[in-house]
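FAQ

Q: What does a record look like?
A: Structure on top, sequence underneath. For example:
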C-alpha cells in the first residue's frame, strides 16, 4: 500500500491526466505523435443493446464528462442528461483532434456506462412503483469512493431520496433513512428505541420504526403505534428471506391490525433485496420501497466510442455506420429517427403536425460549456416527464 494512500480510488487530476486509461491508448498516442498522424476526428457513443434486452434506457453521467473535457480543444454534442434513448442512437459526439481526448476514452465510457445503468434501473423501478415512495438504500453494496455518483444517478433516475449523507448534500436534498437493527438491539426493545428516537432527534425527521428485529411484525407495529400515536410516520419491514414467508401476506396483516386500531396514517415501507418483480407484487399493499443492490449494482449500459469521421470524411470500422448523425425526436411521443447529419428533419416523425427536435444538443465548444448544466432536480423532473408521457415497453 502506498504510504498515505489507503483508499484505492483515482483523483480528479489523475483521471483528467489519462492515468486511468487502458494502456493501448497510451501506446496509440505515442505512435501517432512519433509519426505525426494526429488528425481531426468525429467520434460517437452508442449502445447496441441494453440491460435485460430492454428497448430503452436513461442517459446519465454527462455532468462528469463535461467536467472531464472542460478546457480541452474539443466540441461536444450530447443528449441532455436524463434523456431516454434506444439502442443504436448516438447519445454523444466528440469532435476535435484525436490526441486531444484519446487517453480519456476509458474514463468517459466508465462515467456514462455505470451512471446510465443505475439511472435506468431506478427509472424502471420508479415507473413500476407508480406514486409510491422509492428511496435508494444501496450504498453499502458499492465502493464508498463512488457512492456519490451512484446515489446521484439513482436520484435523477427517479428515486425520491438517497440515504448517504454526503450524496444528499451534493444533491441539495435531505438524506432519507429510518432506524437500523443495531439501534434496537442495543436498546433492547423496539418501542424503547423508537421512544428515544422520538425524544432526541429533530421533529422534522419522520418517525419510521423498523419492526422485524425481535418479534412478529404486526405485533411490533401495533406496539410502536400505541407508543407514538400520531407522531409515527411509518413502519419498515426488512424481514430476511429466511424468516419472511409470504411477504405480501405479512404486509396485509400489519395493515389490517394497524387500521383496526385506528392507525390508518401509518405507512408501510418495505426493503430488503427488492427488484422489479417484488415491486410489482407489493405495490398495492406497500406505501414505499427502499431499494438497494438492484439499483446500486445495476448492470451497466455498454456504450462504445467509435470514430465515424476523419478529416471530415465518413469512415468507421466494420459493424458501424460511418458519418456524422442527427437524432430527431418527437417530444410528444418519444419517437425518434437517426439520419445523416445534413439531412432535414423528417416531417412525418410527429403525428398530428408536431415539430421534431434535435436530440443532440451542443454541450461544449472549444472546451467551454455552451450553457449552464441543469440541476439534479431538473434532470430528475425530465426523466419523470418522459416516464409519464411516452409509451415505453
Amino acid at each position: 500500500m502506498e504510504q498515505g494512500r489507503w483508499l484505492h480510488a483515482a483523483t480528479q487530476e489523475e483521471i483528467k491526466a489519462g492515468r486511468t486509461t487502458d494502456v493501448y491508448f497510451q501506446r496509440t498516442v505515442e505512435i501517432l505523435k512519433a509519426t505525426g498522424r494526429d488528425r481531426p476526428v468525429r467520434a460517437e457513443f452508442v449502445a447496441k443493446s441494453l440491460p435485460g434486452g430492454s428497448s430503452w434506457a436513461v442517459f446519465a453521467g454527462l455532468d462528469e464528462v463535461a467536467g472531464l473535457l472542460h478546457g480541452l480543444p474539443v466540441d461536444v454534442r450530447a443528449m441532455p442528461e436524463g434523456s431516454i434513448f434506444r439502442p443504436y442512437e448516438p447519445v454523444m459526439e466528440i469532435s476535435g483532434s484525436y490526441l486531444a481526448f484519446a487517453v480519456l476514452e476509458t474514463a468517459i465510457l466508465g462515467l456514462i456506462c455505470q451512471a446510465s445503468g443505475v439511472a435506468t434501473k431506478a427509472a424502471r423501478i420508479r415507473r413500476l412503483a407508480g406514486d409510491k415512495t422509492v428511496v435508494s438504500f444501496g450504498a453499502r453494496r458499492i465502493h464508498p469512493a463512488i457512492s456519490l455518483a451512484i446515489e446521484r444517478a439513482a436520484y435523477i433516475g427517479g428515486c425520491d431520496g438517497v440515504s448517504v449523507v454526503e450524496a444528499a448534500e451534493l444533491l441539495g436534498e435531505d438524506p432519507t433513512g429510518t432506524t437500523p437493527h443495531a439501534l434496537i438491539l442495543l436498546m433492547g426493545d423496539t418501542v424503547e428505541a423508537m421512544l428515544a428516537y422520538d425524544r432526541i432527534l429533530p421533529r422534522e425527521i419522520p418517525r419510521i420504526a423498523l419492526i422485524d428485529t425481535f418479534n412478529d411484525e404486526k405485533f411490533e407495529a401495533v406496539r410502536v403505534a400505541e407508543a407514538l400515536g400520531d407522531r409515527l410516520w411509518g413502519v419498515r419491514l426488512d424481514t430476511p428471506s429466511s424468516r419472511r414467508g409470504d411477504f405480501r401476506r405479512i404486509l396485509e396483516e400489519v395493515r389490517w391490525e394497524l387500521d383496526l386500531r385506528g392507525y390508518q396514517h401509518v405507512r408501510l415501507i418495505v426493503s430488503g433485496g427488492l427488484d422489479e418483480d417484488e415491486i410489482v407484487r407489493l405495490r398495492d399493499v406497500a406505501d414505499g420501497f427502499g431499494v438497494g443492490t438492484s439499483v446500486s449494482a445495476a448492470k451497466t449500459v455498454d456504450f462504445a466510442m467509435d470514430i465515424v469521421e476523419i478529416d471530415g470524411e465518413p469512415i468507421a470500422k466494420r459493424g458501424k455506420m460511418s458519418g456524422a448523425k442527427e437524432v430527431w425526436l418527437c417530444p410528444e411521443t418519444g419517437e425518434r429517427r437517426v439520419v445523416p447529419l445534413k439531412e432535414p428533419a423528417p416531417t412525418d416523425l410527429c403525428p398530428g403536425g408536431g415539430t421534431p427536435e434535435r436530440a443532440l444538443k451542443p454541450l461544449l465548444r472549444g472546451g467551454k460549456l455552451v450553457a449552464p448544466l441543469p440541476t439534479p432536480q431538473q434532470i430528475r423532473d425530465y426523466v419523470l416527464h418522459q416516464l409519464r408521457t411516452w409509451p415505453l415497453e
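Q: Is there anything notable about this one?
A: The chain has a mean pLDDT of 94.
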